Structure formats: structure tokens, C-alpha cells
Amino acid sequence: MADNASQRRMGGQPLFILSEDSQRTSGKDAQDSNISAGKAVSEAVRTTLGPRGMDKMLVSDSGDVVITNDGATILQEMDIEHPAADMIVEVAETQENEVGDGTTTAAILAGQLLAQAEDLFDDDVHATTVVEGYHEAAEIAHDAVDELALEGDVDEELLLAVAESSMTGKGTGGVTAESLARTVVDAVEQVRGDAGVNRDNISIQTQVGASSGATELVEGILVDEEPVNEQMPGDVEDASIALLDVELGVRTGDVDAEYSVDSVDQLTAAMDAEEEEIKGVAQTVADSGADVVFATDDVDGRVASTLADEGVLVFENLSDDDVRGIASATGARRVGALEDLEDEDFGSAERVRTEKYGDEELVFVEGGAAAESVTLFVRGGTEHVVDELERAVRDALDVVTAALDSGGVVPGAGAAEIAIADRVRAESAGVSGRKQLAVEAFADAIDAVPRTLAANAGLDPIDALVDLRSEHEAEGRAGLIVDGQTREVGDPVEHGTVDPAAVKHEAVESATEAATLIARIDDVIAAE
Ligand code: ADP
Ligand code: MG
Predict the structure, then answer these.
(1) What are the angstrom distances between the C-alpha of 239 and each of 214, 341, 366, 422, 437?
(2) Closest by Cα among 138, 142, 140 to 516
(3) DSSP 55
(4) Carries keyword ATP-binding (predicted)?
(5) C-alpha angle 30-31-32 in degrees, rounded to nearest 5
(6) C-beta 50 within 6 A of ligand 1
(7) Quick one: three-class SS letters along 439-454?
(8) Do 364 and 381 share a domain, yes or no?
(9) Is 177 inside any structural domain?
(10) Do 148 and 411 form a contact (C-beta atoms < 8 A)?
(11) How far lies 87's CA from each of 344, 446, 503, 517, in Å?
(12) Pairing relationship of beta strands 235-244 and 292-295 according to DSSP bridges
């Protein structure tokens, strides 16, 4: 079809500027195809929005299964090839990277902006007019979000509400959602300083095997390693910690050297020399005063056994990431040669202990002296539960951080969108020419969020929209609150359903950007 279209336009003359294999789609065909692709992607995540949103099971080529409700994850896992569709996936990715939540909202908004653009094109509104109108409407929307932000400090109660709202519908379920929110807020409070939240100091570690209610906050870091020798102590208090970039054994250089051994005496001497070296290494480490050693390289079995006798806890082959984490939490400095190890290179922690989970073992480094590092230790019955819980917790950490660090919170449950659309519609009257139609269309696109929340909760979307608007008119704030089996129009702030303002800003921003980018395209030239 694509080639026919170009052929038609070229009056049957072959195109000679493009290779024979490249595909070209132009004008309305290109626009239609891009818009349909974009809409299709946004459609794919629609049913996951909100507390009553459903999950998706995604099966990859190799049979790996992911079960999730998270918009960004769904779109990443889908094998999307259409370039315009891919741009909607990018909207979700940007949203995830910038604020960590609101990915479904952003994708739905982008899809709706495209659907509205299609109608405008059918009414002969030019693409540039649509683009200008959308940008103007987005400005109004940003102002509206700023105005919606709740007055006063973002206190702990509000943070708990933000965390819990972001996790609703993520398979966390009832009681656990509340305790998870508590854990998340505690984690953020721990790493909060004068300069804001140090989000990098919060890690997440998952472990299958207990119920999700067993998820806890560890005041320190967790490393997926086991001691090099079973006889070593599994629990060390007031630990002095060394980070060694050293192979603890016979020096690699010596192993390659050739000995010519002519007699039994010489052989014994060589072995003795090696034995001496091993002893020397072990003794140097033991004498250094280290209670716990994290080595980036191998640790010889004989060194390990001597150190076990000395009561030193040793781990080998640490990853760079883990070493960095331990260094920043405990204040230990990496040392490249044993003879360079000095007092100030040691870090310390209140406690280092190992814990067995099935056939896996984890090291807990708690109460590090250098920095407040905390780890959310996420538990769950199965791999899939833990994975989805990890995504939920990650989102929650991000939204709590966003609420504290950028712009506060706005009412959730569709109330923000109802207010934004209302404001955009009201101000559209002042926009001249056909651009006004695009501004109005933008408001209609925003309505898709409360409409979708309603539809996913099993309500008629049109009736719900009407109810929400009249309540908004009367009370100034109206959301569609879903709580278990009940759904009611009311004040989401009272109910504790709130989202960070940053999530709404970012959704408007990235959806507008992608939709206007796609709407402007009228020619697609694809190499083979
Ligand atoms: P997203 O990927 O966009 O974050 P979610 O599935 O997390 O999608 O849904 C977020 C939306 O659900 C937000 O608009 C939020 O305000 C709303 N929401 C959260 N909790 C409730 C609730 N109890 N009742 C109604 N809406 C809620
Ligand atoms: Mg969410």
C-alpha cells in the first residue's frame, strides 16, 4: 500500500532517490498510520489504570513471564516495532525516569491527544495549528497543577497517603499496602537531609520465601554473598571493615614463575616458601585489626581457614557495585595492596551478619559509620510477587521523594484531571482562531484519565464524568474514590488519595511532546 501511494503521487514514475527496498508512506496515510499505532499502544495499558486496574501477563520469546500492572514495564516488555508506537513507549520511559510513577496516565494521555488530533485533522485543522494549540493548553495545564497543590507542609500523613495511593492496585493488597507505605516513608525519612532526599542511599533487595508482610527496612545495606569459610563468625558487632582489591593468596606473579626443582629438598623448600607466603598474607590481614574483609578478588582456601581461626569474617569476589555501596555506607576505602592498608582505610559498622534464605545467603551491613544507607528488604511468596512488589515499592519511594522535593501533592482519583480539564476549557475561550479547537480537544483528552478510572472500576464513564464535574463545580474538588467494593464521588484528599504534583506535570509534558511530535509527521521513509 505504501509503495502504491508513492507511485500514484509520482504519476507512475518510479522513485529514484530511494533504494528499491525502502518503504515510503506520505501525507494522510502516514498520519493515519502513526496515529493509529500511537493510539494502539496507549490502548494496551488502559485497563491497568487505577486501583481496579487489571494486571497483564507478558510472555517473552524465550518463555520468561512477567506479571505486572506497571505501565512502563508493560510497554518495555512488549516487542514494539512501529516507530510512532515506540514514541509512546518512550513517554512511559521518560515518565518512569523523571518521576517514577504515572506511566499509565502519561501513555493514556498521549494516546488521547493523538485520537483528538485525528478528529481535528478530519475537520481540516492543520497539524501546526493542533501543535500550537496543544502547547498552549499544556501551559494552562501546568498552571492548573501548580494551583492544585495542597497548601501547607508535606507532613508525614500526606507522605503515607502518597505512598499508599501509588501502590493501590499493584497486588500489594489491603493491610500490606499500609505497612509497606509506612516502611517506604521511614526509608525516605532516614536519608533525608538539608539538601533534600538522598534517593541514591536507598536500595532495594528482594528475597523470595516469606509473605509480603515480612518486608522490612534494614538500616544499612545488603549484599548477596556468603563467607568464604563456614567456620567464620556469622555475626560481628562493632565491626572494623576492610575493602581489599587484592588477591588473598599466593601472588599471581609467582604462580607463573618457573622453578627448576632438582631434588626433594628443593621441592620442599619451594612448598615451604609458598606456605610461608600464605601464612604471611593471612597474618597481615589478621594483624591489621579487620573484623570483616570484603575482597574484590579470590581468597585462597588456606588464607580463609587461618582467618576463620582468627575469627575474621571474609567475603570474596565482590562486585563493583557492592564495593561502592559498602564504601559509602561504612567509610571504608579500597586498598590495592596489603602493605598499603592503614588505619584510616578501615570503615566500620554497628553490625555485620549473615542470614540464610533457602540455599541463598545475604550479608547485612547495618549501622554503617559514614552514611545513612537503608535497604528495603522486599519479601514475597514467589518470584512474580516479589518482582511486582519491588516495582510498587520503587514507585512509592520515587513519589514520596517527588512529593518532598518538588512541588508537593495534588488530589488524586481523577480530581486533578477534572480540575485541569475544567481550567483548560475555561481558558480556551480566550484563544483565537482554530487553535481554540485544539485547546478544547486537549481538555477532552485529559478527561480520559477520570473516564478510564471509572470504566476500570466498572462504572459508566460518561455518567461518572458528569457526576464528577457537577461535584467539582459544587465543592471545588471531586474524585472517583475506589475503596474495596465501594466507589463514590468525593474529596480524595479526605480519603488520602493524593499524587505528587511532579507526576502530573511530567505526564502533561511528555505526553504533549510525543503527541505533537507524531502529529507533525507527514512522511515516513523507512530503509529496509
Ligand atoms: P499510573 O501508572 O499512571 O501511576 P496507576 O495504575 O498507578 O497508574 O493509577 C494511578 C491513578 O489511580 C492516579 O490517578 C491515582 O490518583 C488513582 N488512584 C490511586 N488510588 C485510588 C483510589 N483509592 N481511588 C481512586 N483512584 C485512585
Ligand atoms: Mg502509579
Answers:
(1) 27, 16, 10, 60, 68
(2) 138
(3) P
(4) yes
(5) 95
(6) yes
(7) HHHHHHHHHHHHHHHH
(8) no
(9) yes
(10) yes
(11) 51, 19, 19, 9
(12) parallel
| Residue in 48, 68, 94, 103 annotated catalytic | 103
Residues 515 and 108 sit within 8 Å (Cβ to Cβ): no
Q: How far apart are CA 125 and CA 133, in angstroms?
A: 11
Q: Which of 50-54, 348-352, 402-406, 415-419 has the lowest mean pLDDT?
A: 50-54
Same domain flag for 365 and 264: yes
CA of residue 462 relative to chain centroid, distance:
33
Q: Does some domain include residue 15? A: no
H or E, element range at 56: strand 56-59
Render 144-158 in DSSP notation, one character per residue: HHHHHSPSS---HHH
Q: What angle do CA 133, 137, 138 make, to 5 degrees?
A: 115
104 flagged as catalytic:
yes
Is pLDDT above 90 for 101? no
- pLDDT surpassing 90 at residue 152: no
Question: Would you state the pLDDT for residue 173?
Answer: 55
Residue nearest to atom 18 of ligand 1 (CA): 413
pTM metric for this prediction: 0.79
Single out the catalytic residue among 55, 70, 101, 291: 70
State the amino acid at position 57 in one-letter form. M
Place of cell 510497554: 75
**Contacts of residue 359, Cβ cutoff 8 Å, sequence gap at least 6:** none
- Domain contains 81: yes
Q: Is 395 a catalytic residue?
A: yes
Q: 102-141: per-residue pLDDT in tens?
A: 989 999 999 999 999 999 998 989 989 999 999 999 999 9
Q: 14 in a domain, yes or no?
A: no
Q: Are both 195 and 140 inside the same structural domain?
A: no
Nearest to 301 by CA among 31, 325, 309: 309
- At 1, the pLDDT band (50, 70, 90 cuts) reads very low
